[in-house]
Amino acid sequence: MEKIVTSNLKLGIIAGGQLGKMLIQEASKWDLVTYVLDNDENCPAKSIASFYIKGSNIDFDSVYQFGKMVDILTFEIENVNIEALKKLKSEGLRIAPDPDILKLIQDKGLQKEFYKNNGIPTSAFKIYESKATILNGIDKGEINLPFVQKLTKGGYDGHGVTVVNSKNDLTKLLSGVSVIEEKVEIEKEISVIVARNRKGEIKSFPVVEMYFDPIANLVDELICPASITVEQSEKAVNIASEIIELLNMEGLLAVEFFIDSKGEVIVNEVAPRPHNSGHHTIESIITSQFEQHLRAILNLPLGSTKIKLPSVMINILGADGYEGPVIYEGLSESLAIDGVKIHLYGKKITKPNRKMGHVTIMSSSINCALRKAEKVKQLISVKSWKENR
Question: Are strands 349-350 and 72-75 parallel, antiparallel or unpaired?
Answer without folding.
Answer: unpaired
